[in-house]
Amino acid sequence: RIALQKLLSRHFLNRFAxxxxxxxxxxxxxxxxxxxxxxxPLDLGHTTLRNRVVMGSMHTGLEExxxxxxxxxxxEFFAERARGGVGLMVTGGISPNRAGWVYPFAxxxxxKAEVELHRDVTAPVHAAGGKIAMQILHAGRYAYHPLxxxxxxxxxxxxxxxxxxxxxxxxxxxVEDYARAATLAREAGYDGVEIMGSEGxxxxxxIVERTNKRxxxxxxxxxxxxxxxxxxxxxxxxAVGDDFIIxxxxxxxxxxxxxxxxxxxxxLAKAVEGAGADIINTGIGWHEARIPxxxxxxxxxxxxxxxxxxxxxxxxxxxTTNRINDPTVAEQILNDDCADMVRRxxxxxxxxxxxxxxxxxxxxSVQTSDQHGEAxxxxxxxxxxxxxxxxxxxxxxxxxxxxxx
Length: 405
What we know:
Strand content: 5-15%
Helix content: 25-40%
Number of strands: 12
Radius of gyration: 23 Å
Oligomer: single chain
Shape: globular
Order of helices and strands: HEEEHEHEEEHEHHHEHEHEHEHHH
C-alpha cells in the first residue's frame, strides 16, 4: 500500500508539473504577443538590451557598504531583478567626488578600493543575465552637508546649506571627476553609466540662469551654461571608449520658474547626442518643484507626451518615465511612438521576480483573471496603486496634464 501511494504521488506530481509548464508556456506566448514592443530587444550598436524596460535609478539604502558585507546586498538586490528579465538597471546615485555627496559619507566612486566593492554588484547581475549601469550623481546645492558646491552660491529652498561657488578651475576638475568615475565604473564591471543631468542636481544648476550667475566661460549665454553637461558627456566617452553605454538624464520639464525653455532642451539634447550619449532618459521636475510628478495622483504615463516632443529631434533612443506601472500603458506608449524605452522604479523595487511585476509568476506570463481577460495586478501592486480610491484624484491629475500640455 505504501509503495502504491508513493507511485501515485509521484505520478500526480509529474502530471502537475507538466500541466504547470504547459500553462506557463501558454501565458508566456500570450505576453510576448500582447506586449511585443515592450519585450522587443533594443540594439544600441555596441550592445543589445533584451527588452525596452529600464529599472530607473532610485536610492535603495544599499549604496553604502555595510559593515563586513560590502555591497553584496546591493548586488543580490539587482541580481534578483536581472533574473526577472529587466532590460537595463540603473543604480542609485553615486557621487564622483566628496563635494557631490548627497549627505555625509554617501556613496561615491573615486578609488580602486571602491571598485572592488562594486564588483560585488556587477558580478551577480551578469551571472543572472542582466545589464546594469551606474548613475553618476553630483548633488550640487542639494547636498545635505556643509561641503556642498554649485555654479553659484544660491541656496536651494529645500536645502540646509548655502553652497560654495566653484572656481573656474574647479569646474574643469569636476568634469574630470565625472570621467574618472565612469572609468572606474567600467573597471568595476558596469555595462554603462547614467549621467544625472536633471531633477535639479549640479548639472541642472549649471544649465539655468536661476542657479547659474557666473560670468566666466561656464555662465552667461546658454551656449556657455550647457557647456558643463556637454563636456562631461564628451570626456566620459573619451575615457570609456565606444563600447560602453552612456545614458544622459535630460531635464525635459523643469517645473520651476526660470527653468529651461523647449528650444534650449532640444539644443542640449542634440549636443549631448553629438558628444557621445547612447540614450537620452527623460527627467521631469526639479526636486523643489511644487507640481506632483510621481505621486499616485499622476495619471499613468502622464508625462510621456514630453518625451514624444523630442522624437525626431535626435537619432538615439529616448526613454520615457513617471507612473508607467501598467503593461498595457507601457505598450501603448511605445506603439504611439512616444519613446523607445520605458523607465519604471517603484514597482521593480518591490517585485523582483518579473520584468512586469503585474505578473504573478516568475516569468513573462501575465495573469488574466478578470472577466474581460485583462492583466490583473497582484495584491501588493493594488496596495501601492491605491485602488479603490475614487474620482477626485484622477480628475485632478487629468486637469494637471491638460494644463501642462
